[in-house]
Amino acid sequence: MNKLLIKGGRVIDPLAGKIITADILIADGKIAAVGSGIPAGEGAVMDVTGKLVAPGLIDMHVHLREPGFEAKETIETGSRAAARGGFTAVACMPNTNPVADNEAVISYIRSRTQEAGLVKVHPIGAITRGSRGEELTEMAALKEAGAVALSDDGRPVASAAVMRRAMQYARMVGLPIISHCEEPSLSKGGAVHEGYMSTLLGLPGIPAAAEEIMVARDIILAEDTGCPLHIAHVSTAGSVRLIREAKARGVPVTAEVTPHHFTLTDRAVAGYDTGTKVNPPLRTEEDVAALKEALADGTIDVIATDHAPHTVEEKDVEYQLAPFGLVGLETALGLVWTELVEPSILSPVEAIRKLTVNPARILGLPAGTFQVGADADITVIDPELEEVVDPAAFASKGRNTPFAGRRLKGLPAATIVRGKVVYNRSLAE
Ligand SMILES: NC(=O)N[C@@H](CC(=O)O)C(=O)O
Ligand SMILES: [Zn+2]
Ligand SMILES: [Zn+2]
């Protein structure tokens, strides 16, 4: 039997809401025991005294770009970036080429994931063919092939009738809809948040209303159809209000926020660094305050990166011409710890919940806990470790980050997937 003892760490149980000092014994890739003073026996030992041990982190919103855009990222480089960022699993969006709107692409992603042999990659299927917003995909077949959710992320489903029908079918099939909320007639041509900064910088704006109208529409449709709805990358105070009110009424809606949206405002665009160009755009201070409040009160269930790599050449153009998106996998945990846990906006347990059990539940994954017999997917966190973000050190092909040079405290120390150490900081540096 292949054994590994994770010894002496402070183990976070996000379900029980507790942190206890304990050892975790892994045998043949599964959790074999959790308790104090477990003998190592003949197996290997990883001493994690002083560190936190969490169930493997899950990032339910990434773009791995394969098939079709391998110059930006591949499943292998994206998996490596995930492992380096402390994630044991990611869910990847279907805006590849071809779009993941059929079983063949879903199967391809799964076999490339196997070949990479690093983290778990759960494919998200498209809502509509080619994500063109017209005809629905074969949702049952996508689920059968391994899709864990449906989304046309990157492109809004402009037609309410199409979205309504999609929710009716998705509910029947048993898959959640992840909505990229953007009203195209309002966002068209925009590059940054519409407000003081867009005027000052002379850049075309995307109003908050472009997001909020679609959040309102999709909440109404989720209530109408009973389909579980997950709102991707929430960025405005108005969206938060709508989601909070819908949850209070029992609408089956959940929501995520990205580290860049709870950390930065549109002031970061002042230097015209295209690393700040992202969709939805960086908003205002009031929006950031509302997002933090929503994280604290549970209105926002999940922290997800929306990791969106682009090549240096694609980003090295005028602000208006650059593609939207920034890389997030390798800065996420440090930003969560530095911006939310250190200032006590979230407790360590609450932060870990939004990175483990909550996304696992939304996607229906048997993950996010330390149940004996479950896959040994584990993230070791060093809450005292500090580092300055250096994009050149990223495992991702993407270098498009607005966080270069930023000092982060609280970083991944090791990432373990099915008992295999896929990242170990003390060996990597
Ligand atoms: N977020 C982004 O700015 N870009 C994403 C698309 C998306 O998540 O909507 C991408 O695929 O590049
Ligand atoms: Zn999106
Ligand atoms: Zn996205």
TrEMBL record:
Protein function: Catalyzes the reversible cyclization of carbamoyl aspartate to dihydroorotate.
Reactions mediated catalytically: (S)-dihydroorotate + H2O = N-carbamoyl-L-aspartate + H(+)
Family to which the UniProt record says this protein belongs: Belongs to the metallo-dependent hydrolases superfamily. DHOase family. Class I DHOase subfamily.
Cofactor: Zn(2+)
HAMAP family given in the database record: PyrC_classI_B
Keyword Hydrolase: yes
Residues binding Zn(2+) 1: H61, H63, D153, D306
One function term, GO molecular function aspect: allantoinase activity
EC number(s) reported in the record: 3.5.2.3
Active site per UniProt: D306
GO annotation, biological process: 'de novo' UMP biosynthetic process; purine nucleobase catabolic process
Cellular component per GO, a single term: cytoplasm
Residues holding Zn(2+) 2: D153, H180, H233
Entry keyword set: Hydrolase, Metal-binding, Pyrimidine biosynthesis, Zinc
Residue sites binding substrate per the record: H63, L64, R65, N95, N279, H310, F324, G325
Protein name: Dihydroorotase
TM regions (residue ranges): none
Enzyme superclass (EC): hydrolase
Entry's cofactor comment: Binds 2 Zn(2+) ions per subunit.
Signal peptide range in chain numbering: none
Pathway noted in the entry: Pyrimidine metabolism; UMP biosynthesis via de novo pathway; (S)-dihydroorotate from bicarbonate: step 3/3
Residue span, Dihydroorotase catalytic domain: 50-237
UniProt xrefs under InterPro entries: DHOase, DHOase/Allantoinase_Hydrolase, DHOase_cat, Dihydroorotase_CS, Metal-dep_hydrolase_composite, Metal_Hydrolase
Gene of this entry: pyrC
